[in-house]
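pasting for ref. prot 1 ->
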Amino acid sequence: MKIIFSTIIFLLLLTSVSAQVQISGKVSDRNHLTLPGANIFIQGSYDGTTADSLGNFSFKTKLKGRQILAVTFIGYNPISKSIDLDSTKNIVLQLELEETGGQIDEVVINAGSFEASDEKKAVIMRVFDIATTPSAQGDIFGALGTLPGVQKVGEDGRVFVRGGEGYETKSFMDGMVVSTPYYSKLPDMPTRGRFSPLLFSGTLFSTGAYSAEYGQALSSIVDMKTNSPETENKSSISLMTVGMMASTSKCWKNASLSLSGDYINTGLSNKFNKQLTDWVKNPVAIDGTIIYRQKLGETGLYKFFGTFNNSTSGMVYPNTQMGTNQRILLKGGNFYLNNTYNSMLGKKWMLKSGLAWNYDNQKFDIDQDQLVTNQKMLQAKLGFVHFINERTELNLGADWVNYSYLQRIRMNGDYRLTFVNNQLSGFGEMEYKVTQKFAARMGMRIENSSLSGQTTVVPRFSGAYKTGLHSQVSVACGQFYQNPEEDYLKFAPQLKAEQAQHLVMTWQYQTELRTFRAEGYLKKYTELVKFNAPFATNPLDYSNSGNGHAEGIDLFWRDKQSLKATDYWISYSWINTRRNYKDYPSSAMPGFASEHNLSVVYKRFFEKLKTYGSITYSYASSRSYHDPNLPGFMNSKMNPYNDISLSLTYLMRFFGKQAVMHLMVNNLTGFNNVYGYNYSNVRNEAGQYDSTPIRSPFVRQTVLLISVLL
């Protein structure tokens, strides 16, 4: 099911609203020249700002005790300063930075990757950006949809990258696999990610040619980095038109414990938001999360992350293929546990280890039939980082993944489909900074699948060269494998891994307040799964004879300098892709792909009104679909996709407590977006195949929320 909204936006804003200490001052160099755009922030927190055109800065924080204030600026050595937040409510500082020897910052390998982080200040997107993008509705994967390279597939909700399907993007948490990162979904209904952005200090999003540390992803990876231990006790509660949420955190000297839970019921919202879906049971969900973090010794950090979800929903589904309306009820349950421990081993070695477990259960009642699917994943990982010298770093390790799948079908009999796969992998990767301007990363990954008996050895390479003070060019390439989807392996476990080859070239210009990025890529697919007809059950009907290709250009521009109190970004993608896979009779542009994609995100804080406003416009050109009433294959085009989403957040007090009131409207102008058509299997009396359009579950969606910091 799809949970309509997340309260992450307001929790982030409340952190800034309830500030207690004012920190202000000026940033300059040793010659007293001001440094506009310098980043000033408290390490391990979201509190910070950038210096204005005169080098002045000011921000508030509600943190307490001694903290480390960090200052960074491109071309200058960063500094750290200890400050006591208990000594005064107004701290004024004069900060001086020293230029680096070469007067340019070091090259950073970034081809094919975007990083959203609050730990690194010169990045494409920040955690706050993910949380405050209206069209994303507080969803990490939804916010990634505003970046170049991502296709807009409104009927699905997953991340489709550069000609790849949604399953080709693999999700990780602190380097550990998350096998079911999305909520359970009904047919032709969009889903969303299970995790709130507030839980993470950063998100690495690679659109291709990613590191050898990651495997089993044909197109893309998303790695979410969990927060460090909390630094203060805090609690909050949120009331909204779709439910409620509460959270609390308890801190000790070297540890912290955070608990959160939410109850979602869309019954009220569905009454005043016009629905295009005939609900027989409004979506309802209960979620809970526990996070424990413990510092061990001088450098060790243990993190435990646990979450569960239980959801129910039901609809009348117009099954046009069968010519009937089906009553479908869905019950979903999910558990995810993630344990990681990292520590320095002396001065030159770092230990990185983890243990993760994921369990997912989906039960569909379709009229008198039943479909129950259980998925279990257990992963153990051990890695080491060796800092050979200031220029050379070695990353190596191994992981084991046990994955079991069981599906029971009660439909004109009882059927049981099952398989188990043990995936053993090893990787090694070395990054070498030849000079301050040139760096290279060379890696190798080996994987063995017990199900297919296949062993793959794949190389990876990436490099970058600094072309100027703020610009660089990067290149990355490699081979990538991924086991076929479960819907195919349950019938044909003999299938080999699908394969893709990536080549990515990037040019990027980046200052503290502006970023321009242009990236071109080539992808070649081989060993894709093909079958004779949909829902084929004979293993001999399946093969790895499919192939495809994708090539395109992605552009990204972000500007926080030109307009007062304004932040905006624009992303555009062009893609040419063809596939001959599944039951395709010939090579064609797949139905999920749009040749042109555009996103414009605009955000501004209106200080006098105490209101934060955000608006997003999304566009995707026509997608192809197959109309059996016409000759040829993939012979028709849908209308282009358009969406305008708006959010307004008003800072206020509620019964004497700091609070915010938030209004969010998706598809503000009511665009009639159609994502495809379902066709009947038989002709009608006129000799035509009847069709039903696939649309969003609502025309326009409005959500109101009040969040209070207790």
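and prot 2 ->
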Amino acid sequence: MNTKKKNSFYKVTILLVIIAGFTAFSMNLITVTPAIQQKNLNNPESSQYIPSEIRVAIYNEPNVTRPSYTAIGILTNNYSLIELALNGAGYQVSTITTEQIYNHELLTSNYDVFIMADNLPKVNITNQVKEFWLGGGGLLTFDSVAAYLCWSGILFPESEGSDGFSVYWNNQAQTSANISLRHPVTRGYDIGDTFTFGSSYSWSTFDWTALMGSSIASDLYRLANQPGDLNDVTVLGYDPSDRGGKLVHILTTDELDADNLLINAVAWLCPQPKGKILFDLSHSSRLGVDSWDDLTAYPGYYKTWRNSLVSRGFLFDKLYPSSTENFSSSRLNPYDMLIIVSPDLNYSSNDRTALTNWINNGGSLVVLGDNPFLSDFAITNARINYLLDSFDIRLNTTVGISGTQDLSSEEHPTTEGCSIVTAYSAGTVNISGDAFEIWGYSTNVIIAGQELGSGRLMVIGDMNWCAEGNIGTNDNEQFAINLANWLISWNADILIYTDDPFSANFYKSPLCRALNSLKINFYLTFSSSYFNYSLTNGSWELLIINLVNYGFANSILDNIKNFVDTGGYLLMSSYVVSSNPTHELWATLGFAYASNMPDNEPFYIWDDTHTIFNKPFDYDATLFQPFIFYSDDGDLLTVYDNATALAGYTASEAEGNATIILRNDKHTLYNGYIIDELSGDNDFNGFEDRLELWTNEILFMLDQAGLLPDGQPAAGIPGYELITMLSVFGIVTCFLIITKRKKN
């Protein structure tokens, strides 16, 4: 066993990371044929607004005895310089003890990032720490914490139950490390640069070959390596595509003297959620989320549902029993959505009052009951009905349906992408007043909803439809995602459409990442028919359309024109003008079709003083260059007198060559070039160009539509600061070629 001598602790230099690769996948209208099917190592991953009040928890455990799950490493509890540096950056830094974590204080509603500075969690809190990460919280870990990451299965599911020593990682004596990749927190370094430690102790290094054989290989990033040996990874990044929050592991806390790297690392790890979700364990739900949910009769039933939500940008916490009131304003207010599953404990009148007030003030609730003929679900349904006394939906306590049922839907936003949802011996739901059916079986209502003005409610007569083993049936998982999108977006003024084919999912598209970084609530659609349904049946101030894959029928273009004609605001990026060049919408937006945009060509800024190029991001290049290649990049346009061209194909303004057009009344901003192609960093400021442009344009249109908080100008959002996250990037070395796309 290698040992480590650690007597002093020191300053901080953190090399951390992120790199976003594309997960290219085939859709009906696109076939991806990558020239190099690997991560684009020169592409920055994300730009973002970072809340200056980032909340950091640092593990404080004076007892540094190794826990029983590993025999490796000498632990320390010296975090003082980390705490000092982060406090100096204006972050909200707290220390948190083993006892506090055991009492469930490590929640995503309390903290954004959890730091373990070479101190391993005690056995009694290992699940609580993993729970924070699974819920979407960021982890920053050092040295010996590699043992916990492997044993818990956070880094390598295959390693769960083993500390991974000598399989995935080892201790190596070294005094320096080389930068392997350029990333957000290494902007002061070039690839190959060396940073040094104070002493030649044995520090944790990962075996890159072993890592590449794991099931999460595509989500791992080699950020730094031992000099002369690329296989010995000294700084490891992890950005999971299917569960949990981001993670960075650093080989040592010794001689870390560049505090800005630490500050930027924590900023990158900070989640920027679409919404916050709470799962009630305080009333002993019949089914639990994870295998360790021992407050439930049957633990481990909603892991996939939780992971699916977190991988789409939602945060997820569990509500544990309280010594006072389980439901209270202080416990519910941090969340947008609450999940209740057949409770085995009664609700109090205070629970009911607190929940009703929370919903009336904008909270949204989803309730899962069950068939009253089975077990004692008539009783659990009655408990739920007591809780919902103020609303118009009730679980039936006498009627249920045996067997498996393929449900059919009424037209509703939550059924987007769904043809069949399957239920299992479901109970039925009674509706009255303003409540409405969403899914049913024969004449029975199984799933119903209600819009309450300041919140939303959904009641489901089956607790098994989204449980392990069932959520993958038919369209159950898609509906489970849709209901969160609908419930959390009750007060959204913005309707978006995106069909981006390269992101891991639509919620991780560049458009959605930009909106989340601005903390803007929005309702997401991804199919043209459901976009049209929401457009014509909802009330919206701003439409944001990212039409890069499919096309829109004339009737949808007609409805967009009507929306604009009646005073609505529109931000759009599309390639489709050439598909229907004479449609009246284009003249309404202030232009006419001139010609197709040549493939894989840059376009130039014509008015570099305009807000969309300098607020909040100061774009310091004269052009935008594509790095993802589509068969049809967009269109060149001729501008009418009621609009202004801001960018175009030629270096200087020329008729018939415009690509970005702003109507003079500032109600519409149209991009004739697909913004999502701009994944590089032409201005070398460390941000993806497409995210700079999306963020600037969104903020500009929010300002025009009067949707900024407290009437703030488009220069920024109060309480936020822009953090430069990536260093200068060279020319992108890999590209994607997409075969000819059929257009509607």
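The two ends are 64 Å apart (CA to CA).
Residues 1-51, 713-744 have pLDDT under 50 and may be disordered.
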